[in-house]
Write a structure and sequence with these properties.
- With about 950 residues, the chain is of the alpha/beta class.
- About 45% of the residues lie in helices and about 15% in strands.
- The protein is built from 31 helices and 31 strands.
- The strands form eleven sheets. The protein has a four-stranded antiparallel beta sheet. The chain has a four-stranded mixed beta sheet with strand order 11-12-10-13, covered by helices on one side.
- Helix 15 links the parallel strand 24 (about 485) and strand 25 (about 515).
- It is elongated.
- It starts with 10 loop residues before the first helix and ends with a helix.
- It binds zinc ion (ZN) (2 copies).
């Protein structure tokens, strides 16, 4: 059977082969059998945008989610991972507009209908490219349940949700000041606006002439909006302006006069001149002031950011050109009173970075406070848990201060708002297209031209994907879902809104745990960006890329100056590390860290780990084959765990395996995937490969069919097979490739992904005695190996090692393990229970109370031996001092548990004896 196992593991051939197998066999499919009583475990994937390409952030999400899904599937749960994509309103519209631009057309020229048709055509052609890419990572999504937010069923869910919220008075239409992107030409929600702190700005002072004489100087950061001013405000307590309150000023450019008002809420006496202009149509604070004082709202900007007819001579100018022109004209009139730099906050469109314009506009809003209250309660009561916990504070703060959500967008790609208007302006909101006005009964209705914010449909995702509003079996079985794993950056955009909608429409929070992970950055901790040229494409890491390919890609993406970094950091390009290596690397960072600074060295390390696993399995198969004897011809009868193994190595590895499973389960259950993967890594590398496989060699060399050989064969086969099961959720491909070749228990399923995750520590498996005994054996072996290494003894030279135990019991134990020492150290080993001084022609090491003696003549160099002894003595002296100090501390001796004090005393005695023995050996060596 080993002839089938090549020397090296080849992820490039194994990964696509096994993925195709899993998919062909339908292994990702969750059961919809009504008889299936398994507890469901459900994750709704954060739907990537249809415009998207796989990036490291996706790779990280998908890895974490796939590990959870595979783990719970292996625990015997009916696991469902719902995949799908988001129609991505603005992003898709931009892509299609770019296509049109190549043909020299704009969307307004082709018209809405043709544009939408074109967008669907693009969608058909580009398909679910990003979902194909998720497959490369090993994502075990139930593809038979793939959803798209613009699918008829999901669109139906959006209409239903809108109509119900409207009927409940939670959705309404209103005219108010909203955030407007003049470049995207749409309203934005508060969340889509990013505030640039400390942006360059200036404070500009100019004078308004007062009717009847005099002037009042105002300070402003946006002079062009003075064309829409409808008042000047001062503080009611400001002595400088008492005499002016109630007077009118005269606008210098347009035929308008307006009052000087007193307003304590708006005006800060210390800011600028203490007098401010009020532009209710273009500033949120002024808007509120205008409401308080019944001021007219004069809009001077058009939706494209140019000044409109209200701006008089400035009409048609872009807002920034208008700023300059207004300042010049004020200067020409002698009204300028000074300017100075003024760092300020500038709101920018999250998508296109354009400075956002506050505009008065009629939009649809969703009332959030009534929806937020139960969503706050769900987290407060622990029905839904936020991990890491510190996000709770942010969540509560945002939810308690939540503002109504502007949900209408002036786009063409998205869910139509199910509202119609009659000639009288009455609104009819209905599930089906209405034929007459719900208020006056008139026909000829006009549909609302807007679409809904993309996040409106995403908010319904956990239940719309399961069939809502229809009461489907899937909805009954899989809602609420189990875990929501996503980036902390969309906690409010998405997670909080799913919480609100889920509770509102389904009566229960949509998930029991929210796992918020951080951002993947380059190894310097810098955000990956095309401009910086530091983007690491997961597909390059998996499939390999030369440095030339990496540079070409960065340059195509418009990288500026990032190429040097690439040359320096990835001089060799990427070999094909495989998906498993990338997954294990992503898992090795704490999922709770805000930044995952992806290191290629780590990826390399985990690629080596996959190879180590492969080599361990290969050794195991060969060893099983060769130790089987003629009749068994290598076949292993069973991979059940041996009930009561006698050999120390077997007892030890089963005990350590149980401990590793305990740690792995704890990590997986508590979303510490780093701890789970770390425990398995250490088990495989330090315990299984470094020790057990070595120790199994002399055991398997015994008489075929003997108890010792049979027991070791069973242990080796069991541990290898079960280790593949434990690692499968993390490294699915290499474990499947190996598992399929290993001996398996009777009735094993067709894939490791359907096998059971190994049990955690169970009765009788944890074996403290074996672990302690192994610690001593390992120390002895390391001591002999160290002597060999330090004296540069050729590996083929057999040493004569004498082990002296301090008591009969340990002598007997050492006797049992002598053959292991002999095999692992190339030595002839004798054991005695002799005290007294070491003969002077021997080198001596004392470990765990055992004296390890080797004839000096075999070690050649007495000088090196002297150095080693001196070093060992120093170490013992240090340990002695520490132990003496501890026991000299009265409070320790009085307060510590008796057993602990006794242990320290025993240690002191042992250290003193060791010190004596080493010192004596050194003395003799010096004398000789
Ligand atoms: Zn924009
Ligand atoms: Zn009407």
């Amino acid at each position: 059977m080993t002839s089938e196992m090549p020397k090296a593991y080849e992820p490039r051939s194994a990964e696509p082969r096994w993925y195709a197998f899993w998919e062909r066999e339908g292994l990702f499919r969750a059961s919809d059998d009504p008889e299936d009583t398994r507890t469901p475990y459900t994750i709704a994937i954060p739907p990537p945008n249809i415009t998207g390409f796989l990036h490291m952030g996706h790779a990280c999400r998908v890895t974490f989610e796939d590990v959870l899904i595979r783990y719970h599937r292996m625990l015997g749960r009916n696991a469902l991972w719902v995949p799908g994509t988001d129609h991505a309103g603005i992003a898709t519209q931009v892509v299609v507009e770019r296509l049109l631009a190549r043909e020299g057309k704009t969307r307004h020229e082709v018209g809405r209908e043709a544009f939408t048709k074109r967008a669907w055509q693009w969608r058909q052609e580009s398909g679910d490219r990003i979902l194909e890419q998720l497959r490369v990572l090993g994502a075990s999504c139930d593809w038979s349940r793939t959803r798209f937010t613009l699918d008829p069923e999901l669109s139906n869910a959006v209409t239903e949700a809108f109509v119900r919220l409207f009927e409940e008075g939670l959705i309404y239409r209103d005219t108010r000041l909203i955030s407007w992107c003049v470049s995207c030409r749409t309203a934005l929600s508060d969340l889509e606006v990013e505030n640039e702190e400390n942006a360059n700005g200036e404070l500009f002072d100019f004078a308004y002439p007062i009717e009847g004489g005099g002037e009042i100087v105002v300070s402003t950061t946006r002079p062009e909006t003075m064309l829409g001013d409808t008042a000047i405000a001062v503080h009611p307590d400001d002595p400088r302006y008492q005499k002016h309150i109630g007077k009118n000023v005269v606008h210098p450019f347009v035929d308008r006069r307006f009052p000087i008002i007193a307003d304590a809420q708006l005006v800060d006496m210390k800011f600028g001149t203490g007098a401010v202009k009020v532009t209710p149509a273009h500033d949120p604070n002024d808007f509120a002031t205008g409401k308080r004082h019944n001021l007219p709202q004069i809009t001077v900007l058009a939706l494209d950011g140019k000044m409109n007819d209200q701006a008089g001579d400035f009409a048609g100018l872009d807002r920034f050109a208008a700023r300059k022109a207004v300042k010049e004209k004020l200067a020409a009139l002698g009204l300028t009173r000074g300017e100075k730099p003024n760092p300020m906050v500038k709101p920018r469109c999250q998508r296109c970075n354009t400075v956002v314009e506050p505009m008065i506009s009629t939009q649809w809003f969703c009332r959030m406070q009534p929806l937020a209250a139960p969503a706050i309660e769900a987290v407060q009561s622990g029905k839904t848990q936020l991990i890491p916990e510190h996000w709770q504070k942010t969540y509560f703060h945002w939810m308690r201060n939540i503002q109504d959500w502007c949900i209408s967008r002036q786009l063409w790609w998205g869910h139509a708002i199910p509202a119609h208007y009659c000639a009288e302006g009455h609104i009819t909101v209905a599930r089906e297209t209405p034929t007459k006005c719900g208020t006056c009964g008139k026909g000829e209705l006009t549909p609302d031209p807007d679409v809904l914010d993309t996040w409106f449909s995403s908010a319904l995702w956990p239940f719309s994907t399961l069939g809502w509003p229809k009461q489907t079996p899937d909805l009954a079985r899989f809602y609420p879902t189990s875990d929501m794993e996503t980036g902390s950056d969309i906690l409010f955009f998405w997670v909080a809104r799913m919480m609100m909608m889920g509770i509102h429409f389904m009566g229960a929070p949509p998930f029991s745990r929210i796992l918020l992970s951080g951002m993947v950055t380059d190894e310097r901790g810098l955000k990956m960006s095309k401009l910086k040229g530091n983007v690491i494409d997961p597909l390059d890491v998996i499939g390999g890329a030369t440095l030339e390919q990496l540079i070409a890609k960065a340059e195509k993406g418009g990288a500026q100056g990032g190429v040097e970094y690439l040359k320096k950091t990835y001089a060799e390009g990427f070999p094909a590390y495989g998906a498993d290596a990338l997954r294990f690397t992503l898992l090795s960072y704490s999922p709770q860290t805000p930044k995952i600074a992806l290191s290629m060295k780590r990826i390399e390390g985990y690629r080596n780990f996959c190879n180590k696993l492969w080599n361990a399995a290969r050794y195991g198969l060969i060893a099983l084959e060769q130790s089987g004897g003629a009749e068994q011809s290598g076949a292993v009868e069973t991979t059940e765990r041996p009930a009561a193994p006698k050999q120390l190595a077997n007892r030890y590895i089963l005990s350590r395996f149980a401990a590793a499973m305990q740690a792995a389960r704890e990590g997986l259950d508590s979303y510490r995937l780093d701890e789970a993967s770390g425990a398995l890594y250490r088990f495989v590398w330090n315990e299984l490969c470094d020790w057990y496989l070595e120790l199994s060699k002399p055991l398997l060399a015994g008489e075929p069919g003997s108890e010792q050989v049979n027991e070791t064969r069973a242990t080796l086969a069991h541990v290898l097979e079960a280790t593949m099961r434990a690692l499968h959720p993390m490294t699915p491909f290499v474990t499947e490739e190996i598992w399929q070749r290993l001996p398996k228990p009777k009735g094993a399923p067709k894939s490791v992904m359907l096998a059971r995750f190994p049990e955690a520590e169970v009765d009788g498996l944890s074996d403290g005695d074996a672990e302690r005994e192994m610690t001593r054996l390992q120390a002895v072996i390391v001591a002999v190996r160290t002597m060999r290494a330090e004296h540069e003894v050729h590996p083929r030279v057999t040493l004569d090692v004498e082990l002296r135990a301090s008591d009969a019991a340990s002598a007997a134990a050492l006797e049992r393990e002598a053959s292991a020492v002999a095999a692992l150290c190339n030595a002839r080993v004798s054991v005695s229970q002799a005290g007294g001084e070491a003969p002077e022609d021997r080198a001596l090491a004392v470990v765990e109370g055992v004296s390890v003696l080797v004839p000096l003549a075999q070690l050649v160099d007495p000088e090196k031996e002297r150095e080693r002894l001196e070093r060992d003595i120093k170490k013992v002296e240090k340990d002695l001092a520490a132990t003496e100090k501890k026991l000299g501390n009265a409070s320790f001796v009085e307060r510590a548990p008796e057993a602990l004090v006794a242990e320290e005393r025993g240690r002191l005695t042992e250290l003193r004896a060791t010190f004596e023995r080493l010192s004596a050996a050194l003395k003799k060596l010096k004398a000789s």
